[in-house]
Amino acid sequence: MPEKVEGAYGAEQIQVLDGLEHIRKRPGMYISSTDERGLHHLVSEVVDNSIDEALAGYCTHIEVTINVDGSCTVEDNGRGIPTEIHPKEGVSTVEVVFTKVNAGGKFGGDSGYKVSSGLHGVGVKAVNALSEWLEAEVYQHGNVYRQVYNRGVPQRALAVVGKTEKTGTKVTFLPDAEIFETTVFKYEHLRVRLKELAFLNRGLTITLTDLRGEKPRSDTFCYEGGIRELVEELNSGAETLFSEPLYFEERDGTTVCEIALQYNESYNEVIYSYANNVNTIDGGTHVEGLKLALTKVINDAGHKLNILKENDRLTGEDVREGITAVVSVKLENAQFESQTKDKLNNSFVRTFVSKCVTDRFGTYIEEHPQEARELVLRCITAQKARDAARSARELTRRKGVLETSALPGKLADCSDRRPELCEIYIVEGDSAGGTAKSGRDRRFQAILPLRGKILNVEKVRLNRVLENAEIKAMITAFGCGILDDFDESKLRYDRIISMTDADVDGAHIRILLLTFLFRYMRPLIEHGHVYSAMPPLYKASVKGKEDVYLYSEEEKAAYDAANNNKVTYQRYKGLGEMSTEQLWDTTMNPATRTLVKVSMKDAVEADKMFTILMGESPALRRKFIEDNATLVKDLDI
Predict the structure, then answer these.
(1) Catalytic position from the list 48, 288, 501, 585
(2) In the annotation, is 210 catalytic?
(3) HSE on the CB side for 336, CA within 13 Å?
(4) 196, 428, 470, 607: which is the annotated catalytic residue?
(5) What is the pTM of this model?
(6) In angstroms, rounded to a whole number, what is the distance separating the alpha carbons of residues 203 and 291?
(7) Which residues contact 459 (CB under 8 A, 6 or more apart)?
(8) Which of 158, 214, 286, 573 is deepest in the core (most CB within 10 A)?
(9) Tens digit of each residue's pLDDT (9 = 90 or more) over 148-175
(10) Least confident of 62-71, 175-184, 375-384, 457-466
(11) For 462-496, what is each residue's pLDDT tens digit?
(12) CB-based burial of residue 386 (10 Å sphere; 0-12 exposed, 13-18 middle, 19+ buried)?
């Protein structure tokens, strides 16, 4: 029996929190976290309200500004939040919107919004509650209305403070340092999301400005082609089947479906899905409808063109190889699988999207028989390769490569069998591998040395991937399988750490490893299991002082200046040059090491970068190098 807790337990011990107090007490329930991700989620919540005005047909321009003092302003030219006294609450509707949980314009059939990404009426209340201060301005009826809040509490009633001819809402807030681990907004993080929203809302202008630096920085996004331009950007530089992305749109009442797609020469399937501007990373009924229709249309074309025999049939995987597609739906009462809105559940959307693609894509295929023939032949080639890959996968399964029962001989495993406590270092070469094996903590640290550079999986199909000895060793060691066989619950290590030399070859090996994980075990990156070790570049020795490890050229320059250049440096060209003690102290000891978590804040940008760096187009890589050459400070040759 558990030990009894001493103390009273009665009515007075039951704590009742009002809405905003509960948000401050449990912020993770409303914005997922209080780290950098949660901080930027605040901006998204305010911007989403402006987007809803755009979806309703009233807003054409949204301006997001990071101010000098670290606060953020979001302004739109929509209708403005209603300023009248709320009939039930007895205060202005603006105050209700910013302080009353589960109050909003997005509930019920006669609500102010037919389509909205917000479900719970909590968005801006959470922003208000989690801000040190928030100022709301509304431009309406020829007046400027203003109200200020401190940590969610209104300081005075909504008041008229000026005259104006414009309409809209302006919200400025400073995140509360008592709540968040960091209150510093990252421009690039906001830029990625706002650009995505501009793609998804054709013709809407979104401007992002940062006033914090010496010179203001600004980007403006507006895409008259919407998601068609997004597919175009994703496939830029790639050889494509259709000269330009195909675009289909269907409307039924307030439900809207938009699809853009184009095939390229790669072996990857890239489908991004959105529901009411929310990125549904786990798909849902809209993606299911798209996939069903693609399979039907291409099989029908194959039979009509007499390329496929009567009983032959291409699978969904066959017809989606090389596709880049975006599906975006907007609907009333969107039903998501969870609070995080990762998967759309509305069943009617499946039929709606499927019919749109079957009708529109089917018509295109009929009107373009030459392109249809080429597409079907590509899919047949993909089917043959997939059959070979299936055979290879079954063979590797029989040999234990996709099971954990036959671990690779070169793996130095750890003794603990609890995955949440264990980590595996993927090490470059036998020399560094030997040092790492000797210097590790055998209880929880496993070492897997790789011989040379692994296969670039961006350029080959699955059957070639499964023939590669180093990749097979990793699949076996991780234990969680790949692609359709992937099962995160079988992962044998909580942390997968790439530990390579601090030079160009080491960086290349790391990007090859990340390409494999991104294409075949993406959830490992999405769920925070992948890290890069940070070995030092130098050991600095000064007479009479302890040796110091330096991890960058900037650190070396600073140390040099502080010690009047009377320093002896040892430059580590490779991990194998370190002693076991040095490697442990600098790179493997949890108390002193630095690990960089590999995250994927923007899947679209990540996909583009892997295609540029690891794909078939030298022209794309050349342009990337030319565009970014000025960022290189030290080139290790």
Answers:
(1) 501
(2) no
(3) 23
(4) 428
(5) 0.69
(6) 28
(7) 614, 615, 616
(8) 286
(9) 999 999 999 999 999 999 999 999 999 9
(10) 457-466
(11) 778 888 888 988 998 999 988 878 899 999 999 99
(12) buried
